[in-house]
Specification:
With 480 residues, the chain is mainly alpha-helical. The chain has 17 helices and no strands. Helix content is 65%, strand content 0%.
Length: 480
């Protein structure tokens, strides 16, 4: 059994060209997809926590540092996405550079990332909806807003929003992209409204001292809020449904990071200028700051923005996870049913149904504290391996066309991998324990199904598609 068999890029192109996924997305759709995934309630929550506990007003510098770290990974993704515009994101990149076993590990980690993150988002969506309805005098019973472990029966709003968005994504990429653009527009409008209100009530005295915890505090704040940028990699999962992927994918990935960084920095600057940073250590710092200034309708505005943000994140998570299932099933590592397209809408409806069902179960029956921590480690693992994949493909496939090339090679990919490894090492020990358990389950699935059903396992020489200049001497077959 060859665990390190590599899928030639030429073969990836041939397989993707046979698919009937509609080319329905342009650069604006990709940026909306990325912004929809990245900017959620983190902009309303993490800013205050990081300012109060770690960085003070210097949290604005923390967001810039985190944006640089995310930008390093974004540049790596942009090169691979423009070079291998095939569904699957980091999973596909790893298959083309580091081999099947590494690709499986990445794919399995991405399943963890998107399913768990989407489940947590669905729970948060239900909580914000309940708060919004409560402010209007409508109180939902506890039995219908929490799972059994949270003192209820089922978190019904979480289940319903997952079912609605899953149905939407099944009806076509064009429809879901249009709805996502509208939701993202609402979210950004709410953020811009807050910025107008915030900067009109700034007291410059609140910015002094700007770094009360020193530069170390600023660095710690950057590590905490880095996860506000997680999600831009979802853009790469749309590769096969983009009209001009070699041009538009880098624009979508890099544009997402730039827009997110500008909005995060602006919100941090406005928030810490409105009130003293020490008052921001609470679950809703933005609403607290607005209420302290006498703007009573703040709660409704923040809840509306949070709902829009969570809806777009959930929509993108469902979409991205289904495309990873689609790519893995096409390679034979998962059952072929996940690769089946709807006869009318030409979407992977089976994969979407399974993804939506799993997320609904997580959101409907588990508490948020169990599921929230697991997504980050899967993302960071993907970042590390994708960064290594760029280094490997530059050596093994120098002949491939690269419409976008990582500047500062090889230092940028090395820095991206090192930064992600540093953040992963600072995650709680319990997160690592759960990660090891998840990986053990994944290896059992791989060796019991994926390794034997893999398409490459059926080929006599899996590397035959590679040109001679890309083969290492030890990979060549010996002459008889």
């Amino acid at each position: 059994m060859n665990l390190w068999r590599i899928k030639p890029v030429d073969q990836l192109f041939q397989e993707s060209s046979r698919e009937k996924l509609p080319k329905a997305m342009g650069p604006l759709d990709l940026v909306a997809l990325g912004v929809g995934a990245v900017i959620g309630t983190g902009i309303f929550v993490l800013t205050g926590v990081a300012a109060a506990e770690y960085a003070g007003p210097g949290v604005t510098i923390s967001f810039i540092l985190s944006g640089i770290g995310a930008g390093l990974a974004a540049l790596v993704y942009a090169e691979l996405a423009s070079m291998v515009p095939v569904a699957g994101s980091a999973y596909t990149f790893a298959y083309a550079s580091l081999g099947e076993m590494v690709a499986w590990v990445i794919g399995w980690n991405l399943i963890l990332e998107y399913l768990v993150a989407a489940g947590a988002v669905a729970i948060g969506w239900s909580s914000y909806l309940s708060d919004l309805l409560r402010s209007a005098g409508i109180v939902l019973p506890r039995a219908l807003t929490a799972g059994p472990l949270g003192g209820g029966v089922i978190n019904l709003p979480a289940v319903l929003i997952v079912a609605l968005l899953t149905t939407l994504t099944i009806t076509g990429t064009r429809h879901s992209a249009e709805v996502n653009r509208v939701i993202v527009a609402i979210k950004i409008a709410v953020i811009l409204l807050f910025l107008v209100l915030g900067f009109s009530h700034v007291n410059a005295a609140n910015w002094r001292p700007f770094t009360p915890f020193g530069l170390i505090g600023v660095a710690h704040g950057a590590a905490i809020i880095f996860f506000a940028y997680v999600g831009f990699d979802a853009v790469a999962t749309a590769a096969e449904e983009v009209r001009d992927p070699r041009r538009d994918l880098p624009l979508g990935i890099i544009g997402t990071i730039l827009i997110a960084t500008v909005l995060y920095v602006a919100v941090a600057l406005a928030l810490t200028g409105m009130v003293h940073y020490s008052t921001l250590n609470n679950p809703s710092p933005v609403a607290t700051a607005l209420l302290s200034l006498g703007i009573r309708w703040a709660s409704g505005v923040v809840s509306l923005g949070a709902l829009a943000g969570l809806t777009s994140v959930l929509l993108v998570d469902i979409y991205a996870q289904s495309r990873i299932f689609f790519a893995m099933a096409r390679d034979g590592l998962l059952p072929t049913a996940f690769h089946r397209l709807h006869p009318r809408y030409q979407t992977p409806h089976v994969a979407l149904g399974v993804v939506g069902g799993a997320i609904a179960l997580i959101g409907g029956f588990l508490p948020i504290d169990i599921v929230a921590q697991l997504a980050n480690i899967g993302t960071l693992t993907a970042f590390i391996i994708v960064s290594i994949g760029v280094l490997v493909l530059r050596k093994t496939r120098p002949d491939l066309k690269r419409p976008f090339r990582v500047p500062g090679y090889p230092y940028i990919p090395i820095l991206a991998a090192a930064f992600s490894a540093y953040l992963a090492s600072n995650l709680p020990p319990l997160t690592w324990v759960r990660f090891v358990v998840w990986m053990a389950i994944g290896l059992i699935v791989y060796f019991s199904y994926g390794a034997t059903h893999s398409q490459l396992a059926q080929e006599p020489f899996p590397l035959a598609g590679l040109p001679k200049l890309a083969r290492k001497p030890w990979l060549k077959r010996r002459k008889p």
